[in-house]
Amino acid sequence: GSFSVLLSPAGIRLPGLGRSGSLAAGFCFATGPVYERPRDLRRGCIPPSAEYPDLRKHNNCMASHLTPAVYARLCDKTTPTGWTLDQCIQTGVDNPGHPFIKTVGMVAGDEETYEVFADLFDPVIQERHNGYDPRTMKHTTDLDASKIRSGYFDERYVLSSRVRTGRSIRGLSLPPACTRAERREVERVVVDALSGLKGDLAGRYYRLSEMTEAEQQQLIDDHFLFDKPVSPLLTAAGMARDWPDARGIWHNNEKSFLIWVNEEDHTRVISMEKGGNMKRVFERFCRGLKEVGKDCVGELGGKT
């Protein structure tokens, strides 16, 4: 099928899974059918109330907004790829949370998840993002680094500076739901695109499954390496399946621009350096992000 790049707004995320959060956040949707699955033989005529999870001791955003009525309305719907409400919420059901730490408690399997299950996702997004309403508001992304007026921090107090975001590819399921083939297609598209970067952005890709011990140790020493997820929030969401298949790290020769492939998002884009020059870090981030996006579109045949 055809694919196109989904440049997910950096500020619209569900940051409740691990350090970076639940997956993917794009509000530019492809139009497509919403499916309702027939009740299988195991469920028969069992009402949704009999399937409703016990959330009485849970402290996460999903549990705060999933009512029996919402569950009954959504439990038989699926996205075009077959992703269900129960798959969205399973990580939040399995992990009640901590009384003083409120996580998100759900994940998206594909971009259509946000539309098909909007009755649950919209209020969770509003709670997590200080009232942001994806139905009436539009997140603004400004990648014009020239607007930064200062951006220099006292290096007596600042050891390093970093900017990062996540980006996903339209038409491919997100990490909680992707097949092996989809995950490998993400890797192929991204690595082929990165091979076209020039100048100070030129670099190399390291596939986790093929790394030498020396390469692995160097990436550990550089604090670049990510490892197999062990958090139950992530493993319950399906994030560790087939590890380390089609996962890897790319960085430029100066080690100041990095791309993580198939970690918690399709890609994690990072600009970083030692010291307090945040303006320079952001300039590189904006430039690199634009180049990667342009090259990914080229790899996908120019479809946007």
From TrEMBL:
Membrane topology according to the record: Peripheral membrane protein
UniProt-annotated location(s): Mitochondrion inner membrane
Keyword Membrane found: yes
An MF annotation (GO) of this entry: ATP binding
Keyword annotations from UniProtKB, A to Z: ATP-binding, Kinase, Membrane, Mitochondrion, Mitochondrion inner membrane, Nucleotide-binding, Transferase
Residues in Phosphagen kinase N-terminal domain copies: 40-130
Name of the molecule in the record: Creatine kinase U-type, mitochondrial
